Amino acid sequence: MNNKQITVIVAIGILIAGFLALGPLYIVEEGEQVVVTRFGQIVTVKTDAGLKLKWPIIDKVHQYPQKILSWDGEQQRIPTAENQFIWVDTTARWKISDPERFYQRITTLTGAYGRLDDIIDSSVRAVIAENSIAEAVRSSNLINETKDEAAFIGDTGAVEGELGEEDSFRELMTMIAFDVQHDSIEKGRRQLSDLMMANAKDDVAEFGIELIDVVIRQIRYSDDLTEAVFNRMISERNQIAEAYRSYGDGRGRELLGQLERERETILSKAEAESQQIRAQADGEAARIYNEAYSQNIEFFEFWRALESYQRTLPNMDKTLSTDMEYFRYLYDSQGNR
After folding, report:
1. Exposed, middle or buried: residue 181 (CB in 10 Å: 0-12, 13-18, 19+)?
2. Is residue 204 within 8 Å of 212, Cβ to Cβ?
3. Fewer Cβ in 10 A, N or C end of the chain?
């Protein structure tokens, strides 16, 4: 090999080393996609991972994620169809489905998040403003299927068992049943989320973005609406408490009346039994007196007179007599005057 050949080989090696030093190779990582541009024009799009080749200096490589990305929106204070303001916090998932269009319309991820902010926030405001607060908060009408007794008492059997008044208890449940009646919904929170995504999906597709879903992460009442809701809840609970007090007062009066009737019945029965016993005792006493009288009439009259003296004379300070029949045994033990 002569000097000329060596010189050529060295020159070629230097050119190759210089070419490689300028960076003609690039790597597409797993989960990435690449848009290669030359003088601002798209040359090629690579979506498969591996080692790729480009023209150094004049070609630029723009790397974008192929994976699903998350978008978190700012909380918005939005009026509902009833013109009641609520705070709505939403989130979404998206990905770059057309990297060529994405580069042409947006170019950067920062620009993509700005577009998503405008489009999704606008869709959220439009959907919330067209629907009632119940549609935004609830997902079903299951709450209207809750039993009144389960909502307020829990163990109705214990109350009914103690009082034995199922009709009165049912009447109380009717008085407070209003508390578990809620407006029925036709769409619900999940369907509103689907509407938000449907409204925004076509708009973001123009930028090479595929919107996977939009989810209402949190809804809370504004301060003025919160106070109104609390006041309504307090008013309803006060009505329920008043219904319980009224029910208790009525049951109390009913039980006291029942107690008084039972007391009168017991006393009347006892009085009748006592009168009967007294009559029997008087009859028995009369019978004994008659038997004693018939056995010794004079002694019976003498004994009756002594019993009478024993009851009346101690109460007399002075006794003046004109030969009364009552005191005949005081004049003579035989009762002769």
Report:
1. exposed
2. no
3. N
pTM: 0.57
Please say whether the beta carbons of 16 and 8 come within 8 A: no
Residue predicted with more confidence, 72 or 25: 72
> CA nearest 215: which of 153, 288, 124, 328?
124
**Domain boundaries defined on the chain:** 3-65, 69-255, 296-337
The confidence score (pLDDT) of residue 337 equals 47
Q: Is residue 136 within 8 Å of residue 219, measured between CB atoms?
A: yes
For domain 69-255, the CATH superfamily is Band 7 domain (3.30.479.30)
37 with 107: CB under 8 angstroms? no
